[in-house]
Model the fold of this input.
Amino acid sequence: MTDYQTIITSENLTLFVGESSRKQACPACGKKGDFSVTKSERGLVYRCWRVKCGIVGFIKTDDGDWGYVAKKKVVSKRYPYIGEICQLPDKASSFLFKKFGILEVELRRNKVMWCPITKRVMYSILSSDNKVLGYVARIYKEINERKCALGTSKAKIFWHSKDDDEPSVAFPFCPRKCEGKIVLVEDIPSAIRLARHTKSIALMSNTIPANALSYLSKYTVYIVLDEDATSQSIKLKEKYSLFFKECKIIAITKDPKDMSEIELSNQILEKLS
Done:
C-alpha cells in the first residue's frame, strides 16, 4: 500500500458501505473538491478528477484490521449453484430466438446453459475476461409450466465465490472493438442483444454495484434501464456520474431485449455519440 493509499484508508474508515465522500483533498495533488472515495463491501474506490492528476484505484480493506466496523455494513448473500447443468435443448434455444432474437451462436459464446431438473435457462455471469462467475437461473412459463426446486421467483442469482473481488455484473461476449464507451442495461438478454454492436454490461438489477465503479471509470457510460425505470436512471447519473469520463441517459420505450434490430438502432445505437 502506497503512502497516499494509507491516507485514503485512514481518512475514510467511517464511511458506510455504498457511501461516498468528496470532503478531503487529493493525497497525490493536494486539491480539494475533485477527489472522491466510495466504500464498497470489499474496500474503497477512489479517483481524482483533475486532468493533471487523475489517480484512480481500489484499496481492498478489512474493517477489523482498522478497529472499526461500519454502522451499516451490508452482508452480501452469495450462494453457489450445486445442481445439474447441461447444454440448452433445442426447445429452449428456439424459444430464446423467438422471444428475444438471440442467435444460437450468441447463446454458445455467452455460455447460456440449462438446468434439466428445474427447467430453467442458466445465463452464465461472465467476467470481463470471459470467466464464468455464476449463473442467473431464469424460468420462462412458455417452456416450464411447473413450479421448480429453486422456488417460485422468476430469476435467482448464484455465484461461484462468496467474495466480490470481480465486478458484480455480467459482461456478454462482444465481437467488436468499442473503445471508450459502454452501455449499462438491466438484464443479460438485453446485454447480449446490444453486444452485437457495442460493449455492454448487464447490471442484473437497476443499480450500479460499488465494485464495478473502478472498471467503469475509464468509459463514457450510457445508462439504458428498462422503460419503467427512467427516474432510477436519473438517480444513478446523479450519484455516480463523477466516477465516469462522461455519463449519459438514454430513455427507451421498451426493454432492449424486446426490440427489433431497427428499434435497437433508432432508440439506442444512433445515440451512442
Summary: The helical segments are 3-11, 90-100, 104-109, 188-195, 213-216, 230-240, 261-267. DSSP finds seven helices and 13 strands in the chain. Residues 90-100 form the longest helix (11 residues).
